[in-house]
Amino acid sequence: MKPVSFMNELNGQLQLHQPFDFHYRNDKPMASGEFHSHPFYEIFYFHEGKCTYLIGDKIYVLKPGDLLLMNGLTLHCPHVEPDARYVRSIVHFDPGFVGRWLQPAAFSALLSPFEELSNYRITLEGPERAEFEGIMIELERLTSTGAPQERRMLRLIDMMCFIADLCRTAVNHKESYPEKERHIQQVITFVEQNYMKDLSLEEIAHSVHLTKHYLSSLFKEVTGTTVFKYVYSRRINQAKMLLWLHPNLTVTEVCYAAGFKHLAHFSRMFKEMVGLTPEDYRNSRLSSLT
Which of 61, 210, 234, 277 could bond 215 through an S-S bridge, CB–CB 3.0 to 4.6 Å? Predict the structure, then answer.
């Protein structure tokens, strides 16, 4: 059965119009290298296929049983190997709505993995993997049969309790990366720290001690996109947040704060990537609140 969707897309950013949304074993192909963000939290479970996932300044080569916890606003995208299967289950949820069901202490404990671990991967194996997949199967059954929201919400809270238990000692956990992924991790970290500056490919390559040619080839191989498409995606995402959160800033001020040097270039890139001018994007976001 097709997953029930309670989500749409507004101006390049996914929006929920229900408290949470669940897609079970979705195998729909996705374009690689397409970065996105959204104002809600995400639980992503990888069933099978070949996928490298970029979340902010982190990069994960996924394997079956991997669970990703995301706060949503961080720029992220999957890079799927050509012609490979990409089977995943995804929960999106509004943390504010979850908070209405719980006492403050319990609410804080369940959200801590998403807020303190900052876009984190857990690899599930054995009984833990079986238990988590069992929770998803039950949530899918409730969703597909149109069960009351209260029952589905209790299953989501059960899932979050399971995740919180797994993460109690995760703060001290350190990811290790193969050499290629380690280089790309360093590039993404450098861009995250410097996207607002006037970057060149030579400067980025120098920061990780690689040649420009090798860096360009390696970045495309691992992520499915180019170095500067990633840089521009990061800058545009920052501009979207500034337009949304700081209505007092002019478009020119947002342009410079996001790392662009010329307003015309910024406006052209924004329209190309978001589908609206910066002014229209800000106005549409403000009108959605009224």
Answer: 210
